[in-house]
Design brief:
Elements lengths: L28 E6 L2 E2 L6 H10 L9 E3 L5 E3 L17 E6 L2 E2 L11 H17 L4 E4 L27 H9 L4
Parallel strand pairs: 1-5, 1-7, 2-6, 3-5
Antiparallel strand pairs: 3-4
Bound molecules: zinc ion.
């Protein structure tokens, strides 16, 4: 089975369930993103998916999407390489929260309490499931200047995910991860 082939959001695998027929890849990094959209402007998963497809991706570049109400949507099977952090896609999982811009359009940590809770639970689950060595924010990764000519989501904003992931590790894991 091909990644994202004819994927409909309604047909995506339930949270935590493995997609049949896909071989698991090595995952050692979790990269946190924001959608870089105004937190007061709802961005349904279907629209996020379409936005990425319009930019040439087969489906949403992130693996998980956390909405403002804390609902977690699986967007791309974790078995499939994502399209969210150039140079790190092969061995990482991309997690994005809805928002990252305030009502004035300025970058801000707009995560709701529900989003923060959902993010903690999701990241902890992924760290349990995979041999994750580090959890980082998108902006913590140096860009891979390979100039491959593709416009990838990470190029849309440089401040993503608009909060310091390093400051959350204590809360998420009780220690620096
Ligand atoms: Zn990002």
């Amino acid at each position: 089975m091909d990644c994202c082939q004819d994927t409909q959001l309604s047909a995506l695998h339930p949270d935590g369930q493995k997609e049949k027929g896909l071989r698991m890849r090595r995952i050692d990094t979790i990269v946190i993103h924001c959608t870089a959209t105004r937190a007061d402007c709802p961005l349904p998963p279907s629209r996020l998916d379409r936005m990425h497809r319009e930019r040439g991706f087969r489906c949403c570049g992130y693996h998980y999407y956390i909405r403002t109400d804390g609902t977690v949507f699986p967007m791309r099977p974790v078995e499939c390489e994502g399209a969210h952090a150039r140079g790190y896609n092969a061995t990482s999982v991309g997690v994005a929260y809805e928002g990252g811009l305030d009502a004035g359009g300025s970058p801000a940590d707009t995560r709701t309490a529900a989003q923060k809770d959902a993010m903690r639970v999701l990241v902890r689950r992924l760290v349990k499931e995979f041999p994750v060595r580090r959890v980082v924010g998108h902006r913590d990764l140096s860009p891979d200047a390979d100039g491959d000519g593709k416009v990838e989501p990470e190029e849309w904003t440089k401040v993503c995910p608009c909060f310091e992931v390093g400051d959350c590790l204590q809360e998420w894991f009780g220690k620096r991860h």
